[in-house]
């Protein structure tokens, strides 16, 4: 290409730079008038223009280039700008069709500007203008290919991310189903064991071989079966969403004091103490479910303790501006060792640490405990202690229903402390789990 021909292309580049503002305005008007492009309406002018000036700069540099190396570098810059522009459009909700139609409108606007320059300068060499048009067509072919490629890549990445999320959710669902099956399998095992004990005792009574011992065995096993069936029924209702939070005003100290009084004979029969520290504490909540939480924790504490006993404390509390009240159940049992802890206990411990850290930073203590699959939580127990191992699962579900948080502190040989933080008030309308 001669020096004169290079000069004519450089004049075209200068004209395009001069008319850029009008060109971009005409482009946006054309896009806004296109009924098949809706995403553009959500973009501000700067967002709409995006990388287009960079692409126009590259085209003008290509027109003004002196040699194949400069032209190739300018073309590469234009393609990179188109790639970034395609990503930008994808992130702002464009579909392929909308992006391609935008490119088409831009090409028409730029082609009209080139024709205006050609008509205004009839002295220009037609061959040189033909080269400019070819460069323009090649520019938009490259830009549309790069823009589409970037959107395809983003779509594939998004699809792969969704697939990973689905696989992760499926894995969690499988774990959930396994743990649910473990819970019911263990409950069925306990039921079979107790039913067998009742059958053997009944046989012995029928033969009158050991009537006193058999009668005691029947009584104890029947009681255990009743408790287990009550627990399973309660857990099934909670997990089915059939329990509601029935809020009323009550005295937490009085309710829990009466509960401890009813459990005193059980503690004394095991040679353990059951002490309570509480005063008048008017709160708003569900006294029946609060009592069930406390009862399960106290029974777990008694079952896990050989010497000493269980101490229950009820007190008002306040973290930042949040008014709350606290139920603390502390035993002197063998503790929950890290080796034998269930997933339930591990998550309760993690939640304790997270909530304590949040409280130090002024966070609220009433974030729900993370939802866990139901599982049979069997605490280490003292010699000869019974129990069916689903008490903590029920405690957790009830705490979720009451917007209460669970804190656990336990060391092997040093006992276990459960702290339940309840709100002092709730919205007026009760809700389901």
Task: List descriptors.
433 residues, Globin-like, alpha+beta, Heat Shock Protein 90, two-stranded antiparallel sheet, 7 strands
What does this structure look like?
By secondary structure, the chain is an alpha+beta fold. The chain folds into two domains: 3-164, Globin-like, CATH 1.10.490; 244-423, Histidine kinase-like ATPase, C-terminal domain (Heat Shock Protein 90, 2-Layer Sandwich). The chain contains twelve helices and seven strands. It has helices at 3-18, 20-32, 45-49, 52-64, 68-91, 96-120, 126-207, 211-239, 252-269, 287-303, 343-360, 391-401; strands at residues 248-251, 273-277, 282-285, 309-319, 322-331, 405-410, 416-423. The strands form two sheets. It has a five-stranded mixed beta sheet. The chain is elongated and about 120 Å long. The termini are far apart. The relative contact order is 0.08.
CATH superfamily of the largest domain: Histidine kinase-like ATPase, C-terminal domain
Which stretches of 5+ consecutive residues score pLDDT under 50? 338-344, 359-388
End-to-end separation: 80 Å
Structural class of the secondary structure composition? alpha+beta
CATH class of the largest domain: Alpha Beta
Number of helices: 12
Order of helices and strands: HHHHHHHHEHEEHEEHHEE
Question: Sheet with the most strands?
Answer: 5 strands, mixed
Which of globular, elongated, flat, extended, rod-shaped describes the shape? elongated
Instruction: Please give the order of strands in the largest beta sheet.
Output: 2-4-5-7-6
Number of domains: 2
- CATH topology annotation of the largest domain: Heat Shock Protein 90
């Amino acid at each position: 290409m001669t020096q004169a021909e290079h000069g004519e292309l450089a004049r075209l580049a200068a004209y395009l730079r001069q008319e850029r503002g009008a060109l971009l305005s005409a482009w946006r008007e054309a896009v806004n008038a296109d009924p098949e492009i809706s995403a553009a309406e959500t973009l501000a002018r700067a967002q709409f223009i995006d990388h287009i000036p960079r692409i126009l700069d590259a085209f003008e540099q290509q027109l003004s280039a002196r040699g194949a190396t400069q032209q190739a570098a300018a073309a590469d810059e234009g393609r990179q700008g188109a790639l970034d522009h395609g990503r930008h459009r994808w992130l702002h909700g464009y579909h392929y069709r909308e992006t391609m139609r935008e490119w088409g409108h831009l090409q028409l606007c730029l082609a009209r500007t080139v024709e205006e320059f050609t008509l205004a300068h009839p002295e220009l060499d037609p061959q040189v203008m033909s080269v400019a048009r070819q460069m323009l067509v090649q520019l938009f072919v490259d830009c549309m290919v790069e823009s589409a490629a970037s959107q395809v890549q983003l779509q594939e990445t998004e699809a792969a991310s969704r697939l990973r999320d689905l696989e992760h959710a499926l894995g969690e669902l499988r774990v959930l189903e396994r743990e649910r099956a473990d819970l019911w399998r263990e409950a069925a095992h306990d039921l079979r064991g107790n039913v067998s004990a009742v059958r053997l005792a009944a046989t012995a009574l029928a033969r009158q071989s050991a009537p006193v011992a058999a009668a005691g065995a029947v009584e104890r096993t029947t009681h255990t079966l009743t408790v287990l069936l009550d627990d399973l029924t309660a857990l099934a209702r909670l997990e089915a969403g059939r329990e509601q939070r029935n809020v009323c005003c009550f005295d937490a100290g009085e309710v829990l004091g009466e509960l401890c009084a009813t459990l005193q004979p059980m503690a004394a029969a095991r040679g353990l103490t059951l002490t309570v520290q509480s005063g008048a504490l008017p709160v708003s909540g569900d006294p029946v479910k609060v009592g069930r939480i406390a009862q399960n924790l106290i029974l777990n504490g008694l079952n896990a303790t050989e010497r000493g006993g269980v101490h229950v404390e009820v007190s008002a509390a306040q973290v930042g501006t949040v008014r709350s009240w606290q139920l603390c159940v502390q035993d002197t049992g063998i503790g929950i060792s890290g080796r034998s802890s269930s997933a339930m206990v591990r998550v309760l411990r993690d939640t304790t640490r997270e909530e304590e850290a949040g409280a130090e930073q002024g966070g609220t203590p009433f974030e729900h405990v993370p939802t866990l699959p139901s599982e049979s939580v069997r605490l280490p127990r003292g010699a000869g202690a019974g129990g069916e191992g689903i008490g903590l699962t029920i405690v957790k579900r009830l705490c979720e229903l009451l917007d209460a948080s669970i804190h656990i502190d336990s060391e092997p040989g040093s006992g276990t402390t459960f702290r339940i933080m309840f709100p002092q008030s709730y919205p007026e309308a009760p809700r389901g789990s």
